[in-house]
Amino acid sequence: MYIKFSYSVIIFFCNAKILHMENNKVKILKDEILSDSWYTLRKITFTHQLRNGSWQQQTREAYDRGNGATILLYNKIQKTVILTRQFRLPTFINGNPTGMLIEACAGLLDKDNAEDCIRRETEEETGYKISDVEKIFELYMSPGSVTEILYFFIAEYSRDMKVNDGGGATYEQENIEVLELPFQKALEMMYTGEIKDAKTIILLQHLQLHSLI
Question: Is the pTM of this model over 0.85?
Answer without folding.
Answer: yes
